[in-house]
Design brief:
By secondary structure, the protein is an alpha/beta fold. Helices cover 29% and strands 18% of the residues. The structure holds 1-deoxynojirimycin.
Amino acid sequence: MGLGFALVGSSCATPSPQTTESVAEATPTEVPPEACKPIDSLTTASTRVKDLIAQMTLDEKLGQLNQAAGGRSKSLNSKLTPEELEKVRRGEIGSYLHVAGAEPLGELQRVAVEESRLGIPLLFAMDVVHGYRTIFPVPIAMAATWDPEDWKQAAAISADESSAAGLHWTFAPMVDIARDPRWGRIVEGAGADPYLGARMAKAQVEGYQGTDLSSPETILATTKHFGAYGAPTGGRDYGSADISEQSLMEIYMPPFYAATRAGTGSMMTAFNDIAGVPTTANETLIDGLLREKWGFDGMIVSDWNAIAELMNHGVAATREEAGVLALKAGVDMDMTSNVLPADIRNAVQADDCLMQDLDAAVARILTAKERLGLFDAPMAYHDAQREKETLLSPQHRQAARKAATRAMVLLKNKNGALPLSSSPQTIAVIGGLAEDKMTQLGSWRAQGKPEDVVSLLDGLKQNAPEGTRITYAAGAFPKGDGEATLDTAIATASAADRILLVIGEDYDLSGEARSRSDITLPRNQAALAEAMFATGKPVTIILVTGRPLAIESEAAQADAVLNTWMLGVEAGNALADVIWGKTSPAGRLPIEFPRRTGAVPHTYSEYPGGRPADPDLTKDTNRFMDIPITPLFQFGHGLSYSQFEYGELNAAASTVQTGEDIILSIPVTNTGKMDADEVIQLYMRDPYASIARPKRELRGFQRVNIPAGETRTLTFTLSPDQAAIYKSGQGWVVEPGKLEFVVGASAADIRSSTEITLTQQTITGTPASALSTRTRIE
Ligand code: NOJ
C-alpha cells in the first residue's frame, strides 16, 4: 500500500471509471452524481445518537464541532461569562477546554442539559499531561522509568483527580517520537524509540480510560499529535516534517497504532505538515490510514487554531476552504479556531457528501459523550466533596514519590561517589534550581501548585542523615534572575566536604515553542559549574532538565551525574531517597545525550550505510572529524548502585515458522551488595533484507528487581511479525532469513547475543514496533 500522503483528496468516492466514448457521449444531465463514501461511524452509532442527529438543526450540528476556550491555563473558567452561557443554551458549543472545578463545571453542564433545546451535555477538557494536582515527573522522565506500569498508575491517578474536578477529557498521551533534543516538546513524550514509545502510549491510554470509560473516575484520552509532529525540521517547533514514508510508518506511527489498539477515545492532529501536507488536512492519513486501515473509531480534534492555520500553510485561501479540508480529512472537533462552527455552513449545504461528513463528525462527538456516560449521568463528574478528598491525597503523593525515585538516571558514578555516605559531613547544595519549585512541575502543570512541591533543597535537608549538615547557596539561576552570586556559592562550597551541584534548564526552557539552537547548559549554569570544579571539592551534578543536554565537559569533571529531569511534587523527597541509597537508581535514558548540539539528531537505531562510522580518521566514513562517533550517554543507559552479570542469551529454537513464537531467555545475577532494579533490554537486527534495516531496534525490555546475590531468568516471547518491514505498496512484510538478537544494559552495553532464522514470508497489517514482547521473570 503506497500511502500517497502527499495528496489531499476528496472524501467522496471516485466515480466508477468510464470509457472515453461514454464520457464523450454523456450530456451534463446524464453524468451520474458522485456517490458519497459510506462512513462507518454513522452506521455504527447508537440509536440515541442517530435520533439526536435526526433532530438537530444545521446550526446545532455545527455547534457540536465547536471547542471553545473557557479560559487559559492561568485563568481557568475566566471566559465563562453570562454571554457564554447563552451560547450553551443555543447549542453553539460542544466542548470547553482550559476549564476545571467540580462546582463551576457542574453549573455549566446543568445549563447544557437542562436549558438547551436537545439537552446535549458538554465535554470538559484540559491538558492533564503528567498529573492534575498531584504532579508526577515530566513525561520524558516517566518514560525513563522503563516501566509502563508506572505510567499507567500515574495516568490513572491523573484521571481520578481530574475527573473529580469535573473534567472528562485530557489531551494526553503525547506519543510523538522525537530524536532531536533541540525540539522543546521532547519533554512531553517518551523519547526516541518507537517500541518504547508504543509501550508507554498503551500504558497511558489504559491508565486514563481504565476498563470502564463511563465510570466517573476515568477520562477520555487524546493520543497526540497524530502525524509526525516530533520530526520538525531543525528541531523548530511546528516545523515541517520532511520525512520518508518509511520513517513515518516505522518510527512515528507505531505509538499511534498501539494507542488505537488500546482503545484511545480520541486523537489530536499535529500542527505541522509532512512534506507539504498539514496533518489537519491529510485525508489519506486520517480517514485512510487511521480510520479505514486501523479501524480507529474515536473522535478527532484539531490542535489549537490549527484549522484556521491551514491558510498560513498555504493549502487554503479562505476560512471556508480550510474548514472544508479539515472536515473532509476527518477532523471532528475544531479547537478554538471557530472555522468549522462559523465558516462552512454554505459549503455543507451545497454538498451532500460534506453534509454526510458533518453528520459523521457529530456522530463521533456524541458517541464520545455517550461512552463517557454523559447522557445517562451528566452530573456524575461534579461531586465537590470527592474533589476535595481526591486531590493531592497522601496515596497520590506516595505514588508520585515512587515514580520520581524510579525516573532518575544515574549517568556517571566514578568510584561509587553515590550514594553519599551517612557519616557526619557538610554537603554544599549549590544552584538556584535546588530551591525552584515551579521547575519541578515542568511543562503542562494542570492544577499543580509550586507550594505543593518539596524542592530538591528541602527534600535533602529534611531527609539528611543525622550529623549531615546541608549548606546552600544559589550561585546562579538558569535565567540569570534572583539575588544569586558566584562568590557566596564559592565560599559555601569551599567550606563543605562535597558539593551537590544542581544545574540545568528551568521549566520554561523546554515545552511548546521552546526549541533551542544550542543544547549546552545555559551560560550561567556552565559558569557556576566551572567555579565549583575550581574549588577542588568532589562534585556530584544533579541535572535538572526536560531534554538531553550536551554536557560533555561538565560530566567529565564531575565525580557523579544524576539526571533528575523535573520530578513533580515529591521531587526533593525522591532525590533524598536516591542520594543516600535508600533505593538504587534504575532509570534509563529513553533518548541519548549527545556530545555536542551539532551531533543531533542521532539515534542508535540508524541505518548502517555503505561506509559505517569508523573511529580511524584516515578512513572516509560516516563520522565527524572533531568528536567521537558515539553519543555521550547512549539510549538505554543508566547505572545502578549494584552490579549485574548477564549469562548466555538462549533461543528456544533456531528456526521459527509463521505462527510460532521466538523465545529467548537470559539469566541475570545481581553480583553487588544491594537489592536493585536492572532494566534488561533486548535488541534485534535483520542483517540482510530487501531494504537496509537499522543497526539495532529495541524489541523488548523489563525492569526487574533482583535481590543482592540472586539470579533471575528473563524470558522474552516475540512473534515473527515483530520483524516485519514496512514496504510501500505491500504493507508489513516478514522476510525469511536470519535475525540477530542481543541483550544488554543499554543500546551500546551488549552482554550476550544469539540468532534465529525465520523460514517463511508473511504479510501483516501491523507496525512491527507496535507489537508487544511478552516477558516472564523466574
Ligand atoms: C497546543 C498543543 O500543541 C497541544 O498539545 C495542546 O493540547 C493544546 N494546545 C491545548 O492546550
